[in-house]
Design brief:
With about 350 residues, the protein is an alpha/beta fold. About 45% of the residues lie in helices and about 15% in strands. Strand 1 and strand 2 form a beta hairpin. Bound molecules: S-adenosylmethionine (SAM).
Length: about 350
């Protein structure tokens, strides 16, 4: 009887906490947290106190709940996290608070996972042993599980990536051939040299069938970038990276090669599909990758491009609807002025 009463009181305290958070009642929220109210509790719509405080733009309450340990990344029943609700309501300072919390949490988690070697046995090797299929119109490259490796709707994005990394000619490196969309767009810009790294035997065979090894300035390096790039000893004016079935940790490893691979005046870009099934998670990962590239001496700008892949026909027969958002943030990375100054200073000494 006593236990049941305690449980009832706990539930009603948690509901009161949600109400106080929704109103931005900081004193009420403080008192309820001190009395042990459950800040993880979600109401019938799946919303918790942090989500409601975020929707209302009540920054002091949001800060308090984050400090109390409410996770930034819980979802309500409609699939929205606190950051999505703040974004929908247009509360910029609340978005910034949640973004910072998300970035910090994910960076710590990522570092921990890497330390524990959780990503070591990645799916990449499995992928490289599967048979791939190009459809008749060359609009899709599918793996053996009906997952799309690359789709033609990305054409305009690939054109924009090629423009970013190859507009001024020079020596260009592309990692991952897929449908060859970005490589066609790079070729149209007549680069001095055009190096393509591709690991999958079926894709490599397709490249040879299409005569890519005969194209002007083209050099094909067949193998995983992890194996072929470290010993390359060349610098590029433009680099594009777009692989498949790899972890974020692989991308971090690739980025660690950039100080060697990228010419000081060069431009780096990558397919930015990080956490692309949720707008707020995507923003968190945009910030994480930007900070990590900054630690390698690169400065990143994201160029927003509208994108519309809502038509279900586009995804017919595809198991992985890997894009859900209406804006693509195209990354353009250059060597930061501070990194250039530091290297000039080193040369002078
Ligand atoms: C998404 S597709 C690239 C699409 C390409 N940007 C285009 O414009 O069509 C990814 C490509 O990366 C290749 N790939 C995957 N892992 C790789 C690795 N570790 N090294 C080199 N290529 C890899 C895949 O076989 C695939 O051809």
């Amino acid at each position: 009887m006593e236990a049941a009463k305690g449980k009832e009181k706990g539930a009603s305290n948690a509901e009161t906490l949600i109400e106080a958070a929704a109103k931005g009642d900081i004193d009420g929220v403080k008192k309820l947290l001190e009395s042990g109210a459950d800040h993880l509790h979600q109401d019938e719509r799946g919303q918790n106190a942090l989500m409601l405080a975020s929707r209302g733009g009540h920054d002091p309450v949001v800060e308090l709940l984050l400090e109390a340990g409410t996770p930034w990344n819980a979802f309500d029943k409609e699939g929205h996290c606190a950051g999505d609700l703040a974004m929908m309501a247009g509360h910029q300072s609340t978005i910034d608070l949640l973004l910072e919390a998300g970035v910090r949490a994910e960076m710590v988690l990522g570092a921990l996972e890497r330390k524990l070697g959780k990503e070591a046995a990645g799916p990449s090797h499995e992928y490289l042993q599967q048979r791939l299929q190009y459809d008749a119109a060359s609009e899709r490259l599918m793996d053996a599980d009906d997952r799309a490796v690359m789709m033609a709707w990305e054409g305009p994005l690939m054109e924009a990536h090629a423009h970013a990394v190859a507009a001024s000619g020079g020596d260009v490196l592309n990692v991952g051939f897929g449908l060859g969309l970005v490589d066609e767009a790079i070729q149209r810009r007549s680069p001095r040299s055009h190096t393509i790294v591709e690991a999958h035997p079926d894709v490599h065979a397709r490249m040879l069938d299409l005569g890519w090894d005969q194209r002007p300035g083209v050099r094909i390096l067949f193998g995983r970038w992890q194996d072929v790039l470290p010993q390359l000893g060349a610098q590029f004016d433009g680099i594009f990276f777009d692989t498949y079935s790899e972890f974020y940790g692989d991308m971090q490893d690739f980025h660690a090669l950039l100080p060697k691979l990228l010419h000081p005046d060069g431009i780096y870009s990558f397919f930015h599909g990080l956490a692309a099934d949720n707008a707020f998670f995507h923003a968190v990962y945009s910030e994480i990758v930007k900070r990590e590239l900054a630690s390698l001496g690169l400065s990143t700008q994201f160029v927003p491009l509208p994108i519309n892949v809502a038509d279900p026909k586009i995804w017919e027969g595809v198991r992985n609807k890997y894009w859900q958002l209406d804006t693509y943030f195209l990354p353009v990375c250059t060597v930061a002025d501070s990194a250039l100054e530091a290297s000039e200073q080193e040369d002078a000494n």
